[in-house]
Amino acid sequence: MSVNHNVKSDIEIAQKAEMKPILEVAKYLGLTEDDIELYGKYKAKLTYDTLNKIQNNTSGKVILVTSINPTPAGEGKSTVTVGLGDAFQRLNKKVMIALREPSLGPTMGIKGGATGGGYAQVLPMEDINLHFTGDFHAITTANNALAALIDNHMQQGNQLGIDQRRIVWKRAVDLNDRALRKVVVGLGGPTQGVPREDGFDITVASEIMAVLCLSSDIKDLKNRLARMVVAYNRNNKPITVGDLGVEGALTLLLKDAIKPNLVQTIEHTPALVHGGPFANIAHGCNSVIATVAASRLADYVITEAGFGADLGAEKFLNIKARNADFKPEAVVIVATIRALKMHGGVSKPDLRDENIAALENGFMNLKKHTETVQSFGLPFVIAINKFITDSDQEIKTLLDLCREHNLPVELTEVWEKGGEGGLALAERVISVIEKNEANFTPLYELSDSIDNKIRKIVQKVYGGRDVEFSSKARKQLEQFSEFGWGSLPVCMAKTQYSLSDDPAKLGRPEEFTVTVRELKPSIGAGFIVALTGDVMTMPGLPKVPAALKMDVDDEGNAIGLF
Questions:
Q1: Which is the catalytic residue, given 142, 172, 279, 294?
Q2: Which residue has the higher pLDDT, 453 or 539?
Q3: Active-site residue 415, yes or no?
Q4: Has residue 73 been placed in a domain?
């Protein structure tokens, strides 16, 4: 693909790209028209029969794309994932990409969508970044149906003895709306419900999102939904969805959402885009069903996990891979010069300016993430995602630093050149897989206590000294052990900007202590969430949200969507 020096926006590039009918993309994978459910001309879902049919196929090699601690705008991890997949296809490798679906919260807020960028995008970009096939709306509806059923149970006599002060299930909406973090419901008299405090999470923080993304099939989905804890009774014992008897209704609402979505890249590489839990408050990975299906349909799967290796990758390896019983072959760690300069002390307005000293200082953040990946027994390649603001001297400095530390590295230009800009990276990843026998091992045993699991993550992944638990968290540790939840993995809720729980501690902080303020049981998803810092499950909009630039023309085409 030739380089276009007129810098176009992502949406301009996407709107001018020519897509193949999705049926042609399916045929490349060996699928027929009967194997997919069409959602228009360019989107489809894999059917239950297809998922069952490919179950015994030989598994392809799974390659995880992660990154260093990012700037607020992100470092192009999805872009590199897409470009790497296109590069594999250019090398005549049978490859599939597996990505998360974007949330409308960050899409209309500050971070943007999750379809990649430049000439490394999944299409149709507008659809995927907006309502797509309705999966998130189904999850939102299931979440809020459960909330309504809980309140109705309280109104109709409360046979389970639910303590209205201890209802932990919140309502959800897939937008950033700080005004809904804490609300009061049931006001207006006896016929309007039972008054109580409530709140909203963003849909991607709902446990139903995590449940859908970790389920292996619809039966597993129903069983996981039944295990979700929604409240506690007056004796402080957990009440589940199964106790309410509504897991069947929730599964019914999700019966189509659990099927993975098939789309394509600008270069027609097939991609499954499915599920979207946040990585700073949930486990940050696309669905198990999509990743496993991709591995049954292709020889290589390129997938990503949210934010840096301290969040998404750690959870991909300790939670998702263990849950789905597969072993990744290699990891790509995306680094950008602007993020490394930020970790070296440069403020956001000055990141475009050349600063070799800051780049050298910030390099230690990248070095820590490589050590984290190695601690899981996995080979890796660093992908320097080139930005047009990077100077030649900065690029040379970073390449030299990596080589001095014997870190495999390649410069990638997939935003500008598509798959062609990722060929060197693809060849290096293939070489690393062939030369290095991955010896993947999770960092902790499920038999470890919850506090020891957290301590191992803090010390081995974050590089911290120790963990402190609030009095509330210490009491919960005892309770959760009594309830039989002690053998579940841990999902850390932590700032994405720092290795520590303090977003201001950039670079590679040392000798810090992480404070766990509260534990949250996600028994359906199958993990215990440890809340640190001031991470919130309902974000707010920035002063100037991206939504202010969005519009639609008279023909119905999106404007300002990145």
A1: 279
A2: 453
A3: yes
A4: yes
